[in-house]
Amino acid sequence: MRLYGYFRSSAAFRVRIGLNLKGLAYEPVFIHLGKGEHRQPAYGTLNPQGLVPALEDGGKLLTQSLAILEYLEETHPLPALLPNEPIARARARSLALLVACEIHPLNNLRTLTHLRKALGQSEEQVNAWYRHWIADGMAKLEAAMAQTAGTGKYSQGDAPGIADCCLVPQVFNAQRYRCDLAPYPTVMRVFDACMQLDAFDRAQPGKQPDAE
Amino acid sequence: MRLYGYFRSSAAFRVRIGLNLKGLAYEPVFIHLGKGEHRQPAYGTLNPQGLVPALEDGGKLLTQSLAILEYLEETHPLPALLPNEPIARARARSLALLVACEIHPLNNLRTLTHLRKALGQSEEQVNAWYRHWIADGMAKLEAAMAQTAGTGKYSQGDAPGIADCCLVPQVFNAQRYRCDLAPYPTVMRVFDACMQLDAFDRAQPGKQPDAE
Q1: Hey, is the C-beta of B14 within 8 angstroms of any chain A C-beta?
Q2: Topology of domain B2-79, per CATH?
Q3: What are the domain boundaries of chain A?
Q4: Contacts of residue B104 in chain A, CB cutoff 8 Å?
């Protein structure tokens, strides 16, 4: 398998964790988002969505991090990234989607660049935007994890899974922008538990070969 | 089943389509987003994420539209919203996530309200933001659908499914903001095919009891 990614991409980080949790080896291919390599024709031909990550498996290209994680789950079921029971599976997916749909899209590189260039926002204003959506989204995540049954050692039960694959990269991003994470003790307890595991530790941006 | 939703919520629209495609009856509960009813304590106790839609089934509450659709697929497999083969399933999910993660979050009510209130953007500027992200996201969706194998009568193959559940509400939103959709002929061909089906037609915002 070949993973097209970028050390700082939160979505690529999710897939690195999933591959590591399942013990799957992959060849990394580095697409430098800062240099706009994802918008070059060579990559656009391969992946018309023009985003990272993308995973090549058996000559087929898979896109969108959560679709890739579901694919890995279906093709390499063990160790599982999702629990067995439908309600628990739905809860794990809901926590993953809360990060992927409600927090990350508002704070990714493309969005911040648009705020700077098209809206003329200063760095201070861009940082305020970033922190606003972290506070908004992390409060929802903390409430969901603290107030609904299912949280265990990890986001869903006592095995690391799809929700943790999303939670950990989002916390890394928040820390990078120096957001106050004290109001989210359940999120941070799970983050700390995940970071004890080699699969998460090895996947972190600073440990990738393309890290700057 | 009881569906907490709002006629204009794109994410609730996705779930209405999915329930209709599977022939599942539900009792609608209306949460008026414009009046902030999703932020009231009564709803927050039920759904700590404070978002719509939410689906109550057998006394359990499910949240996040795509997690709800996956749950319906697992608990009521036929008619299927996903194909059988893992690569095709991944492609269908990727197209759904392209809408749910790359387009919709930038243009939902919460984001537009923040642009108005915190950033002091005028209605004209908010509309420009909206159309920018529609153009950016729809170009990606058109490219993915036109340039990768799998598109049939619908987004993935010849049966309506999870990607169509996301595509149709997003096109409705774009039309409401008078975005030019001519550059996306594949998207619009699939949209038109979907709208021939009763399951999509009945789910549209203007046909809901809480429509204004």
Answers
A1: no
A2: Glutaredoxin (3.40.30)
A3: 2-79, 86-199
A4: 101
